[in-house]
Amino acid sequence: MTPLAQSGASDGPRQGLGLSYNSDRDFTERVCFSTQDITICGWPSKGGVIIIDNATTPDFDYLGLDRLHPIIERHQDPDDEDAFCEKMLLLGAKWWSSSARFSLLKGAELDDEDCILRLDTPLEEGGEPEPEPKERLWLRVAWPSNGGLVVSVFDTTLYGYDPHSDNFVPDDENRLRLCRDMNEKAIVLMESFEGKAVANVEECQVDAFINLHNWREAGKVDTVQE
User: Rounded CA gap, 19 and 75, in Å?
Assistant: First the structure.
């Protein structure tokens, strides 16, 4: 079972996106570099792919990744990979049903006509489902040294967004790339991205994948789908 309804497409747009679909690397690649951003991927044992797009220096440090010479491939041991994936979820990563699903929705957000057509086509005619709430949200998390965490949540312009919403991601999102550590990231989230400090993850009352960070310990087959 995968975390979201499986996309009907066998592939996504193959060029021009932060993570273009390539079946040869579906379950191996850890870090993807593009002209637009840096993407970190995790490959949980339950299936799908967990992705952090626009990864920052604090994210690399939190995950124990060497920023200058990052490991390009996933852990060979499934337990090690699941542990890595759980840490990714604590940073606000999204759990996609496939690389193709991620690429499809990112393509539609960038006005790719083929991607939009797939989403406009009714499901009974082979179209793709609209983004679910967990797929839509922009969630960024910092873990400052003084304890707790800081969480920022915004809507995105993924397909089907409400044009009247007043809660879209600020245009200066990339200022997060200037943060050197989690303390600086926490400050920027609080000052520029309406970040809220909470004591623990259980206080994060948002429909996001961060709440699935302990899926292995939960021991419930359907935990990921809830």
Answer: 19
Which residue has 């839509």 as its token pair?
Answer: 136
Containing structural domain, residue 72: 23-125
Q: What's at 123, amino acid-wise?
A: L
Q: What stretches of the chain show up as alpha helix (H) in DSSP? A: 57-62, 78-89, 99-109, 113-120, 133-136, 182-192, 215-218
Structure confidence by residue, pLDDT tens digits, 145-156: 999 999 999 998
Considering the domain architecture, whether residues 106 and 143 belong to the same structural domain is answered as no
| Sign of the dihedral through C-alpha 84, 85, 86, 91 | positive
Residues, the chain, total? 226
What is the reported pTM? Answer: 0.82
Q: What is the pLDDT of residue 34?
A: 78
Q: Among 32-36, 173-177, 193-197, which stretch is predicted with the lowest mean pLDDT?
A: 32-36
What is the C-alpha separation between 185 and 195, in angstroms, rounded?
A: 10
Looking at residue 65, its amino acid is: L
27 shares its domain with 114: yes
What is the layout of strands, in order, in the sheet containing 149-154?
Answer: 138-142, 149-154, 196-198
- Asked if residue 204 lies in contact with residue 210, where contact means CB atoms within 8 angstroms, the answer is yes
User: Which stretches of the chain are assigned E, i.e. beta strand?
Assistant: 31-33, 38-42, 49-52, 94-96, 138-142, 149-154, 196-198
